[in-house]
Specification:
Length: about 70
């Protein structure tokens, strides 16, 4: 099943680290927008408002500071 483009609205939480594997991701962190491609990574400090846009097919690995963000069921 193909995925659609993704747009993540502005929000904030604890720190987040991201690494782009495929495609490009446009990220706005604290009002500054940048585009990241394969091999690129970026860090979102805790509490900083951020948003993102990624076209279908982009692959990103996200790491979150919150220990209980994704609990096993």
């Amino acid at each position: 099943m193909p995925f659609d483009d993704v747009e993540i609205p502005a929000h904030s939480h604890e720190a987040q680290w991201c690494s782009v594997l495929e495609g490009q991701v446009e990220v706005t962190i604290g009002g500054e927008t940048s585009v990241h491609g394969p091999g690129s990574s970026y860090c979102i400090p805790p509490g900083v408002v951020h948003s993102a846009r990624a076209p279908a097919g982009a692959k990103v690995i996200d790491f979150f500071e919150e220990p209980d963000r994704s609990r096993l069921k």
